[in-house]
C-alpha cells in the first residue's frame, strides 16, 4: 500500500477533528477526499504528510510510519497545502532551485526544475517574482514544488483553487497523467473534478468516514430505484396514467418528460411499455433515476 491509515484520530481539547478513521490507497490510485468544511480533510492530510502529529492511531506512507520515520515519509510525499505557502519575494525559478536544494536533488535539480516549469505551464512566468503572479499561477508554482522531487505520493489540498476553466482542465490532465505512475490523494469541493480525475472517493463527515468506494458504486447504492423517468415523443393526456396499477404518483418535468414514483420499478417499467403500446404512445426514453455525485455527497453529509 502507498498509504495505510489505521484508527487515525486527532483531538483538540474536547473536539475530535478526526475520529478513528481507516483506509488504504494503492499505488496508481487517484482518490478524491471529500467532505464539508470542518469535516477533517485538511487535518487528515497534515497528519499523513507529517506536519501534524496524530493523537492516536497510525499512518504509514510507502512503508514508513509518519511519527517514527517522518523524514523518510517526506522524501516520498509531495504536498500542496490548501493555503499554498510561498515566498513572494522569490522569483519562480529561484524558489524551485531553493526547493530542489531542500530535497538535495544535486545534479538532477536543473533538469527537474525545467520539467516542472514546462509541465505546469510556468514558462512565461518563470522570470517573475511569485508575489507578482496571479492566484492561478501561484497555484501552479505550488504544484511544481510538490512534484519537483518526483515523489511516489502526492497529497493535494484544493489543487485547482483560483484557476480559470482552461487552467483547471490542464491541471486535471496533468494530475491524471501523474496518477498512472503515482498515488494521488486530493481534496476538492468541485464534484466535476472528482468525476473527471478520481477512480475512488472517500467522504468524511464530522471526522468520520461516511463512504469509501468507486463513484459508480456510490451512485448505485444511493440511486432512487423507486423513481422512473419517462420521456414521450409527443404530448400525452396525463389522465391515462390512472390506468397504471403500479404507479404511486406522477410529476411533470417539463416538455414531454415525466417522473413516475412506484414501489416496484421493474413491474412499472413493464406496465408502462404495454400501456404505451395499447395507446399507440411512442416512448423516447425510460430509465431509473440516478443520483449525481453531488446528490450522494449531500445525502451523506447533510447532518
Structural class: alpha/beta
Please give the alpha-carbon distance between the first and last residues: 32 Å
Order of helices and strands: EEEHEEHEHHHEHEHEEHEEEHEH
Q: Total number of β-strand segments? A: 14
Secondary structure layout plus pairing:
Elements lengths: L2 E10 L2 E11 L4 E5 L6 H8 L7 E6 L2 E2 L4 H7 E4 L11 H11 L6 H11 L15 H13 L5 E5 L7 H15 L3 E5 L3 H7 L2 E6 L2 E6 L1 H7 L2 E9 L16 E4 L4 E5 L3 H14 L4 E7 L3 H9 L2
Parallel strand pairs: 3-8, 3-9, 6-7, 7-8
Antiparallel strand pairs: 1-2, 1-4, 4-5, 9-10, 11-13, 11-14, 12-13
Helix pairs in contact: 3-4, 4-5
Please give a handful of descriptors for the protein shown.
2 domains, Rossmann fold, 28% strand, 303 residues, 4-stranded antiparallel beta sheet, 14 strands, 6-stranded mixed beta sheet, Alpha-Beta Plaits, elongated
Amino acid at each position: 500500500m502507498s498509504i495505510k491509515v489505521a484508527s487515525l484520530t486527532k483531538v483538540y481539547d474536547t473536539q475530535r477533528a478526526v475520529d478513528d478513521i481507516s483506509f488504504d490507497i494503492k499505488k496508481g490510485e487517484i482518490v478524491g477526499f471529500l467532505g464539508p468544511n470542518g469535516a477533517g480533510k485538511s487535518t487528515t492530510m497534515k497528519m499523513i504528510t507529517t506536519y501534524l502529529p496524530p493523537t492516536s492511531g497510525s499512518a504509514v506512507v510507502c512503508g514508513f510510519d509518519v511519527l517514527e520515520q517522518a523524514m523518510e515519509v517526506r522524501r516520498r510525499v509531495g504536498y500542496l497545502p490548501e493555503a499554498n505557502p510561498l515566498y513572494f519575494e522569490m522569483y519562480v525559478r529561484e524558489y524551485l532551485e531553493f526547493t530542489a536544494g531542500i530535497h538535495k536533488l544535486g545534479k538532477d535539480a536543473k533538469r527537474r526544475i525545467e520539467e516542472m516549469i514546462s509541465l505546469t505551464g510556468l514558462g512565461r512566468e518563470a522570470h517573475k517574482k511569485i508575489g507578482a503572479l496571479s492566484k492561478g499561477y501561484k497555484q501552479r508554482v505550488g504544484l511544481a514544488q510538490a512534484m519537483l522531487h518526483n515523489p511516489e505520493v502526492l497529497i493535494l489540498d484544493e489543487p485547482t483553487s483560483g484557476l480559470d476553466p482552461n487552467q483547471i482542465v490542464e491541471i486535471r490532465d496533468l494530475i491524471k497523467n501523474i496518477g498512472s505512475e503515482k498515488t494521488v490523494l486530493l481534496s476538492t469541493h468541485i464534484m466535476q473534478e472528482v468525476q473527471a480525475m478520481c477512480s475512488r472517493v472517500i467522504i468524511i463527515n464530522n471526522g468520520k468516514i461516511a463512504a469509501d468506494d468507486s463513484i459508480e458504486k456510490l451512485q448505485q447504492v444511493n440511486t432512487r430505484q423507486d423513481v422512473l423517468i419517462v420521456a414521450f415523443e409527443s404530448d400525452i393526456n396525463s389522465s391515462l396514467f390512472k390506468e397504471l396499477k403500479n404507479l404511486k404518483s406522477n410529476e411533470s418535468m417539463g416538455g414531454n418528460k415525466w417522473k413516475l414514483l412506484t414501489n416496484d420499478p421493474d413491474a412499472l417499467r413493464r406496465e408502462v411499455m404495454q400501456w404505451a403500446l395499447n395507446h399507440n404512445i411512442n416512448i423516447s426514453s425510460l430509465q431509473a433515476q440516478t443520483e449525481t455525485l453531488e446528490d450522494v455527497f449531500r445525502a451523506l453529509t447533510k447532518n
